[in-house]
Amino acid sequence: MDVQLKRGLLDLCVLAAIKNEDSYGYKIIKDLKPCIEMSESTLYTILKRLEGTGMLTVRSAEHDGRLRKYYHITESGIKRIEEFKREWKEVITIYNFVTKEALL
């Protein structure tokens, strides 16, 4: 798979994992597990990138005596998910065209 396409899809998976509620690293990995396996180092690289682009914010809160970072999706992150949904329709059309050609 194209590296840039995969990177974009991973970003979207992380945004979708925190769309309905704030979450933290371990829980995000656990929530993504049915869809995709992701290492902690990959996740934290993605979270940092998404924070840098303004698609999520981070806050720290104490949990069991330790600080835990919670990630919150921003309006920009929600818009990116919606853009993806529109773009994906075009990708499906292209996929159907390519696979139809391959069957001939």
General description of the model:
The protein is α+β, with helices and mostly antiparallel strands. It contains four helices and two strands. A hairpin with a 2-residue loop joins strand 1 (56-63) and strand 2 (66-73). The mean pLDDT is 91.
By CATH's scheme, which homologous superfamily applies?
Answer: Winged helix-like DNA-binding domain superfamily/Winged helix DNA-binding domain
Mean pLDDT: 91
Structural class: alpha+beta
- Would you give the CATH topology? Arc Repressor Mutant, subunit A
Q: What low-confidence regions span 5 or more consecutive residues with pLDDT below 50?
A: none
CATH architecture descriptor text: Orthogonal Bundle
Task: Offer a quick outline of the entry.
The chain has 104 residues and is of the alpha+beta class. The chain is 62% helix and 15% strand.
Please name the defining characteristics of this protein.
Arc Repressor Mutant, subunit A, two-stranded antiparallel ribbon, 104 residues, alpha+beta, 62% helix, 15% strand, elongated
Map the helices and strands.
Blueprint (H helix, E strand, L loop, with lengths): L2 H15 L7 H8 L7 H13 L3 E8 L2 E8 L1 H29 L1
Antiparallel strand pairs: 1-2
